[in-house]
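User: We ran a pulldown and think these components assemble together. Before we commit to crystallization trials, I'd like a predicted model of the whole complex to look at. Sequences follow.
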Amino acid sequence: MRHLGVCALAASCAGAQALQGGAHDPRASRPPLQYTAPFQDRWRQPVTLTPIGWISSPYKERFGTPRQPTVTRQVAGRRAQEGTIELAADVGLRHSLRSLEGFDYCWVICYMHMNTGWRPLVTPPRGPRKMRRGVFATRAPHRPNQLALSALRIREVQAEELRIKVTGLDLLDGTPVLDIKPYIPYADAFPNAAAGWVDELGSPHAPDHLDYFPPPPHLESSE
Amino acid sequence: MRHLGVCALAASCAGAQALQGGAHDPRASRPPLQYTAPFQDRWRQPVTLTPIGWISSPYKERFGTPRQPTVTRQVAGRRAQEGTIELAADVGLRHSLRSLEGFDYCWVICYMHMNTGWRPLVTPPRGPRKMRRGVFATRAPHRPNQLALSALRIREVQAEELRIKVTGLDLLDGTPVLDIKPYIPYADAFPNAAAGWVDELGSPHAPDHLDYFPPPPHLESSE
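Assistant: Here's a predicted model for the assembly, 446 residues in total across the polymer chains.
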C-alpha cells in the first residue's frame, strides 16, 4: 500500500516538473511515475489484440512452408521466397514505417491463424524421432498462444503504400500481423549462443522428417 | 473456389496416408493439407490470447527500466538485473520447459500492460531530439499492439517449479508473458545486419535523453 502513496505523490511531482522544468533538467521529460503494484494480478486477464495487417505469401498451405525464415533448403527452388507485409489502410498507420528502410531485417510477430491445439511436449521435425521436447524449448507452431516470430529480410519499404517487401518468409498467405520491430544487432544478435538440443543436430540445413520434395503443386510452377 | 476442392480432397488423401502409409514413406507423417483461401479475411478478426505466466522483476516502475535487455549502463549498479519468468500453475504447462536448459537465451514475448496509447511517429530516447521515426522503425513500448520482444539470458531452468531464472530484463514486475521460444543463432543472429538510424547513433550504450541517475529509490538500495 505504501507504493500507491508514493506513486500518487511522485506522479503529481513529475507533472509539475514537466510544466515548470527548464530544458536543461533531463528529468523534466520523465514520464509520470506509476508503480506496478496496482497491476499485480493483471497478468491473468486475457489480452485482445487487433492485427495491423497481413502477410502476402507464396505459401498457401503448411506443407512446403519452411520451418524458419533462413532455412531454404526445403523450400521450392531451394531459395528464399518473396512476399510482402501489407498494413491495414484504416487504422492510422500512415507514417508508421518511416525510417525503417535503413534496416536489413525486421522482426514480425504474427498470429498463426491456421493452427489450433497444443501439447506441452512435442516432437520436432528434426532430431531423434522419439525424442520429445518441451514446447517452449521448440519453435513448434502449435503452442499455447499461436505467436510466430520471424526475422525477415527487408527488400523494399514502400511507406506510402503501407507495404514492406520481404524475403525469407516462413509464414502462410493471409497470416495476421500483430507487430513489426526493427532488427537491432546489439540487442538481437548472439551468434555464439548455445542452442541446446538444436546444436546437437549438426547442420541447421539438414533435412526434416518431412520430405518437402517434390514441392506442392502451387509452388512447383514458381521454380 | 478450386482451392477449396483441392483442399478437401488432399486432406482426405493425407488422412488415408497417415493411416495406411508405411514407416518408410516420409509423406505418411505429413499434416493434412489445408489451404489458406478459406481464411483469407481472417486477419481482420481480433485475436485473444491468454497469458501463460508473468515476469518477476526488480523494476517496479518504468523510470529506470532499461530500453533493451542488453543495455545495462543506465541500469542501477550498471549491471544486468536478475528476475524470473513464472509460468501459471493451472494451464497444463508441466513438462513444457523440458530441454530448454541447454539454451543460453530465450525470446520472451510479453504484453506491456502498463502502456496505453500510441502514435504513428515517435521520438526515440536517443538521437536528435526533434527527429521523429515511424513507430515500426523503433522499439517504442507504445505501439498498436503492446507486444514486447526480449532476448533474455537464461541462468537456470527450474522446470518442475515452472520457473526460469533470467538476467538482462527490460520488463516491469508483473508483466504478462505470452510466449517463450528458444534463441537459435542460425535463425536469429545477424550480427552484421544494418540498423538504419540506430547505426548512426554510435555506441548502443550511449546515454538516453532521460537521465536514469540517481536510480529510483526501490532500485538504489539494491546496489
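Helices of chain B lie at 2-20, 185-188, 196-199, 217-220. That may be worth checking against your pulldown data before setting up trials.

User: Thanks, that helps.
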